[in-house]
């Protein structure tokens, strides 16, 4: 249940506000994408870079601007999931509350990336608002999830404890290797990372290595030890992993259309790897939600169909 407690009510209100802010940011990204020719510049480190040149992403690279389009599309897919989960949670659904926390975790990841990793532009204040809403909404949603229900789920005989725990540990390992390898290579060679471009630092790399990887490792260990807290970490991580599949795939298509040159291996490798992780993540997310007891308060009467019908 999420809406019947103080934190739950606050999480519901902030969750809806987060959905509205995320929708506004995504729509502005899609309609404000520039269509003019890119602009070649030299970064302060003396490296060549190709900026978008026009639109809301004018001062981001062509590669990054295309990625923003892909993220915007995925955000517009996640927002209805969030709203439906909040609605289910308001009817007493523990599954809805857990999925709402997962969706808010994904939007929080997007907000942090946008605030600290996007060049200053027309969406900056909206990104700040989104971060200011998503952070407390995510925390309150986690606090309002039914802990006894999670305890019962993680200790149930048929719960995929080893599969989920092992997957989280593997996801943390894959993410570590994926992001740290080019960073270590660049540091050893004494040059900036190839994807740095005009940015001053590697925001997404830092966010994933310092936050996502530890969360995945700790969550995996807690799940293997049958701790309910592991499921609170697992839900947002699984939503994030599942959302990466369309983000990476669509991003690669849009980046190629924008003139970014990839080798077949550079396209097939990440897309195939993320697709496998995403498929496994979706399967485990569904199994996790099904394992959580679905409860409605006796006064609620007939509830609408939604998350509890997965």
Description:
With 310 residues, the protein is an all-alpha fold. It has one domain. It has nine helices and two strands; from the N terminus they run H-E-E-H-H-H-H-H-H-H-H. Strands 1-2 form a two-stranded antiparallel ribbon. Strand 1 (39-42) and strand 2 (48-51) form a beta hairpin. It is globular and about 60 Å long. The two termini are 17 Å apart.
Level of helix content? over 70%
Biggest beta sheet attributes: 2 strands, antiparallel
Shape: globular
Counted by DSSP, the helix tally is 9
Unreliable stretches covering 5 or more consecutive residues: 296-303
**SS content category:** mainly alpha
Query: How many distinct folded domains?
Result: 1
Taking Cα atoms only, what radius of gyration do you get, to the nearest Å?
20 Å
Beta-strand portion reads under 5%
**SSE arrangement, N to C:** HEEHHHHHHHH
How many extended strands?
A: 2
**Overall average residue pLDDT:** 86
Descriptive terms for the model:
310 residues; globular; 9 helices
Topology:
Elements: H1 6-31, E1 39-42, E2 48-51, H2 62-90, H3 94-117, H4 124-144, H5 147-154, H6 161-189, H7 203-224, H8 228-257, H9 264-291
Antiparallel strand pairs: 1-2
């Amino acid at each position: 249940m999420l809406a019947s407690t103080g934190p739950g009510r606050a999480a519901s209100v902030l969750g809806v506000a987060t959905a509205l802010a995320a929708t506004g940011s995504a729509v502005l990204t899609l309609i404000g994408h520039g269509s003019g020719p890119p602009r070649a510049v030299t970064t302060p480190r003396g490296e060549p870079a190709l900026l978008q040149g026009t639109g809301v992403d004018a001062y981001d690279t062509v590669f990054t601007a295309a990625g923003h389009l892909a993220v915007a599309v995925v955000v517009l897919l996640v927002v209805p999931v969030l709203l439906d989960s909040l609605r289910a949670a308001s009817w007493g659904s523990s599954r809805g509350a857990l999925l709402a926390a997962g969706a808010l975790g994904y939007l929080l990841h997007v907000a942090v990336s946008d605030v600290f990793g996007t060049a200053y532009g027309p969406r900056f204040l909206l990104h700040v608002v989104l971060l200011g809403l998503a952070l407390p909404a995510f925390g309150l949603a986690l606090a309002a999830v039914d802990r006894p229900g999670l305890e019962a789920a993680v200790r149930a005989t048929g719960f995929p404890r080893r599969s989920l725990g092992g997957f989280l540990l593997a996801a943390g390992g894959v993410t570590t290797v994926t992001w740290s390898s080019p960073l270590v290579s660049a540091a050893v060679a004494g040059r900036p990372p190839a994807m740095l471009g005009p940015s001053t630092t590697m925001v997404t790399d830092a966010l994933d290595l310092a936050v996502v990887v530890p969360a995945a490792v700790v969550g995996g260990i807690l799940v293997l030890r049958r701790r309910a807290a592991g499921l609170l970490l697992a839900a947002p991580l699984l939503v994030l992993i599942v959302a990466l599949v369309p983000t990476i795939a669509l991003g690669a298509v849009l980046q190629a259309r924008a003139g970014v040159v990839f080798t077949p291996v550079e396209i097939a490798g990440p897309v195939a790897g993320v697709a496998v992780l995403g498929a496994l993540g979706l399967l485990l997310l569904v199994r996790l939600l099904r394992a959580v007891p679905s409860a409605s308060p006796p006064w609620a009467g007939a509830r609408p169909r939604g998350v509890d019908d997965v």
